[in-house]
Amino acid sequence: MIEVVGIGDDGWSGLSEASRHLVERADTVIGSPRQLDLLPSMGQQERRTLPSPLRDNLQSLVGESGRHTVVLASGDPLLSGIGTTLIKAVGREAVRVHPALSSETLARARMGWSAESVDVVTLVGRSTDRFLPFVTPGARLVLLCSDGDGPAEVARLAAEAGAGTAQLTAWWHLGGQNEGSHRTTCAAWGDERTPDLVVVCLEVGVLDAEPQTLGPAPGRADDAFEHDGLITKRDVRATALARLRPWPGQVLWDLGAGSGAVGIEWCLAAPRARTVAIERDPDRADRVTQNAARFGVSSRVDVHVTSTSAAVRDDDLPRPDAVFLGGGLDRDVLDAAIAALRPGGRLVAHAVTRESEALLHEVHRTHGGSLTRLAVEHLEPLGRFNGWKPARSVVQWCLTRPPRSKESA
C-alpha cells in the first residue's frame, strides 16, 4: 500500500497526528526537494525525490521502495496532484490518500468565498488560456498556477477577453510563514512576477465589451472566429450543435473543420468535451488552432491536417461520440463515420448543393434518421426601406446510433 500524504506550506507542524505517524513509520518517503525539506530527520529512513519525467518513472520508483512507502503531495493529492497520477499508474487499490487543506480551500478562505460560488481551474502543466471559458459576468475563479509567471499571464489574457476591470488577487505560500498576496485589476497587473507557489483568485464584474463569445450556449457570431468564408453560419451552427448534444468528456469528429467553429463550440458547451478537427488545408488548420486558443480550448481541440477520407480510417484517432460534416460529402466517408460512432453516438451532416442533398436523401433511405431543410433570412436595407435577404438553404441530416442494448436486441 502506498500512502499519499498531503502536506501544506506549514510543513510538519501542520500535519495531523495520523499523517505524522505514517511518515514516521515509513521505510521510504518520496517527494519534491521542497517537501522533503519540510520534514525532520528520521534516522535510517530512505528519502527520494520525485523522478522526471514523472509518469514514465513513477511506477518503477514506488515498486522498488520498501514495504511502507509514503509519497508527499501538496495539499489535496487529488486536486491536480500526484495522487491522481499514482492511482492511474498502480491502481486505486494500491493507493490510500490522506489529504491536507488544499491551496484552493485556503484561497477561498482568505477571500471569504463559499465553495458553491467558485469555479476551480487548474493551469498546472496546462495551457494558461483554459480558464477563459469561465470568464463571465459575476464569475469567481480560483486558478492554480504552475509558477510565478502565471498571474501576469492570467491578467493579460483576461484583459484581452474584455475583463480588464476584473479584480485579480494572487496568493502565495498559503498557510506558511511566507504567505503573501497582491491585489489589483487585470489591466493594471503588468508583468509583475510572484513567488512560484501561487494561486490566483479572479473576481469578474461587468465586462468591458459585449460578451459575444462567452457562455456555453452555441451560436456565436461568425465574426467571433477568424475565417476565410468557410464557416458554418451561426444560426445553422446552433441547430447542428443542438442535435449533436455535447456531453461532458465526449469526443467530436469535426470533418472538414474550416474555421473550427463547430468543434470549438462543442468544447465550450460541455466540461471536458474534446474535438478532433480534420482539415486538409494547412492555412485553415492553423486558423482552427488560433481560434481554439482564443476561446481557451486549445488543449481540447486536436487538429489534424489530412483529408476526411483518410481520417475516418485512422485507427489512432479516438472513437467519436459525435460526428459533424459541414460539406464536401462523400458516401464512403459517411458510411465510415457512421461505423466509427460509439453506441448512442450522433451524426449531423449538411448539404448545400443538389448533388450533396441527393446523397443525404440516399443515406437517409438506408440508415434512417431525420432530414431537415433550414432556411434563414436576415433583414437588410432595400433602398429607403428594409427587406428580407435569404441565406443559402441547408439540408441537415441527423442520425443517432442506437445504444448497444438495442443493437444487441
Automatic annotation (TrEMBL):
SUPFAM superfamilies: S-adenosyl-L-methionine-dependent methyltransferases, Tetrapyrrole methylase. Pfam families: TP_methylase. The keyword Methyltransferase applies. It comes from the Bacteria. Pathway: Cofactor biosynthesis; adenosylcobalamin biosynthesis. InterPro entries: 4pyrrol_Mease (IPR000878), 4pyrrol_Methylase_sf (IPR035996), 4pyrrole_Mease_sub1 (IPR014777), CbiE (IPR012818), Cbl_synth_CobL (IPR006365), Cbl_synth_MTase_CbiT (IPR014008), Cobalamin_biosynth_MTase (IPR050714), SAM-dependent_MTases_sf (IPR029063). Residues 3-186 form the Tetrapyrrole methylase domain. Keywords: Cobalamin biosynthesis, Methyltransferase, S-adenosyl-L-methionine, Transferase. The keyword Methyltransferase applies. NCBIfam families: CbiE (TIGR02467), CbiT (TIGR02469). This is Bifunctional cobalt-precorrin-7 (C(5))-methyltransferase/cobalt-precorrin-6B (C(15))-methyltransferase. The lineage of its organism: Bacteria, Bacillati, Actinomycetota, Actinomycetes, Micrococcales.
